[in-house]
Write a structure and sequence with these properties.
With about 200 residues, this protein is α/β, with parallel strands linked by helices. About 30% of the residues lie in helices and about 20% in strands. The longest helix has 20 residues. It is globular, with a radius of gyration of 18 Å.
Length: about 200
């Protein structure tokens, strides 16, 4: 498997099943999710994830050495380059910093063509630059003002690499608290570590 901190799931491409930490799940569409921990699945599809990995415990759990952050991001970039090539080319050769493949055979090929890659995270210098270069979608973290700022940073990275930022689907990680009364929902925010 690809290693960019650790492969968290294996995907059969197209309609089928995806295997993750919690077993197999049915999926109509399969995508490749990067920068998040774990397998995401639902009615619309599923995805396997590769992470740069910021928690030493996650590395230990899989038996990986906890590398310096710069090296983990280099490995993540390697995984993104290899994944994109495997999703779009017949037998790609990709030379990377830590990992390389030579005429790698990817079978079965994606049924719908390329597999969308989503990168989750809000790092302005590294993560969003990887989004601009490799991702079809991104999931940003922060309040609305922070996300507005991050979208400007992403726009600049896209300009630097000659990419139209409108081609990237953008989402924002958010917490939703539901109670019958507004006041009860607001009262729960501090329990979740959120400002009231």
């Amino acid at each position: 498997g690809l290693v960019g901190g650790g492969l968290l799931g294996q995907a059969q491409l197209g309609r089928g099943q995806v295997q993750g930490r919690d077993g197999w799940v049915e999926a109509d569409r399969v995508g490749f999710v990067v920068g998040v921990g774990g397998l995401e699945h639902g009615a619309e599809g599923a995805g396997a994830g590769v992470v740069a990995g910021g928690r030493e415990a996650d590395h230990s759990a899989y038996g990986y050495r906890f590398r310096p952050v710069a090296e983990r991001f280099e490995m993540l970039e390697d995984a993104l380059r290899i994944a994109r090539a495997m999703f779009t080319q017949e037998r790609p050769t990709v030379e990377c910093t830590h990992h390389s493949v030579h005429e790698i055979y990817n079978n079965p090929r994606p049924i719908r063509g390329d597999i969308p890659i989503m990168v989750g995270g809000s790092g302005e210098r590294k993560t969003l630059r990887l989004v601009a270069r490799f991702a079809d979608g991104c999931n940003l973290f922060g309040d609305v003002e922070r996300v507005r700022h991050l979208l400007g940073v992403l726009r600049n990275h896209c300009e630097d690499v000659g990419r139209d930022e409108r081609a990237i689907t953008k989402t924002r990680m958010a917490t939703i608290v539901m109670e019958e009364r507004h006041e009860d929902a607001v009262a729960r925010l501090p329990q979740l570590g959120l400002p009231a």
